Amino acid sequence: EILSGLVGSEMCIRDRGNGVGYGNMRIARIAHPEGMAFAIVEGGQPDGTGATCREIAGHPFGQPEFTGKSWPIEDVRLLAPILPSKIIAVGRNYADHVKEVFDKSAEHLPPTIFLKPPTAVVGPEAPIRIPEWATRVEFEGEMAIVIGRPCKDVNRNNWKDVVLGFTIVNDVSSRDLQFQDGQWARAKGLDSFCPLGPWIETAVDSIDIDNQPIKAHLTHEGKTETKQDSNSNQMIKSIPEIVEWVSSAFTLLPGDVICTGSPPGTAEMVPGDRIEGGVPGLGKLAN
Ligand code: MG
Prior knowledge:
Layout: H1 9-16, E1 26-32, E2 35-42, E3 52-56, E4 66-72, E5 77-79, E6 87-91, H2 95-102, E7 112-116, E8 121-122, E9 137-138, E10 141-147, E11 163-170, E12 173-174, H3 175-181, H4 185-189, E13 194-201, E14 213-220, E15 223-231, H5 239-249, E16 257-259, E17 274-279, E18 283-286
Parallel strand pairs: 6-16, 8-13
Antiparallel strand pairs: 1-2, 1-5, 1-13, 2-3, 3-4, 6-7, 9-12, 10-11, 10-16, 11-13, 14-15, 14-17, 17-18
Bound molecules: magnesium ion.
């Protein structure tokens, strides 16, 4: 009853049946010359260069209905691919990142769950705005799960039934606020501290979730350095385990985003820097 009262959820349950059944699709949200819409990104390079954006009607949770309108990707602006009701994040999910931030072994500091507010979300190429009082702001390039249907208490073996696809997230964090405040709401929840994108890759069946290279490159004063260079095989809790764990705590709604944790190599960003996260098969997210 609670679920059917939520906007869009009823339609979602009716349309989707079991599993995702989308095949391989890249779902984007775009600003185009006539307005805003969800669109399927087709063709072009893995990073989207030369692709076409085909507009779909309504929301992206059923089988997509094409409106017949399309634009070259160069003629539209990619927005955050989804506006989630909540962003649930797993912290301390890579042992080497636990060591670099907390100076303790992962054995003593197991993974944890925290929330980022929806107002933190921005899309590709949008600026991350750092208030003066939020000091030592670092990027955390991560793989993100996008939920496709309402669910609660999902068994890890059934994770594919509830996942729409994957995208990239930058879990921007003020380390100073994180330690000053004790809890992480301000440190990780400020406006623009949750860049998402570039699109949602729905190839849930074909992506090898336990072997995804995850990288982040920081450009500072014209010089680009690779800061994060890891792999999802280093996660302490795997993606199926994360879906089970997070859904044991919260009802998940279509569009909700789960950040799977940051690999090591996070570093400070200062105004004017450019940060680009990449997961092959998911594209690139730059801000
Ligand atoms: Mg993180």
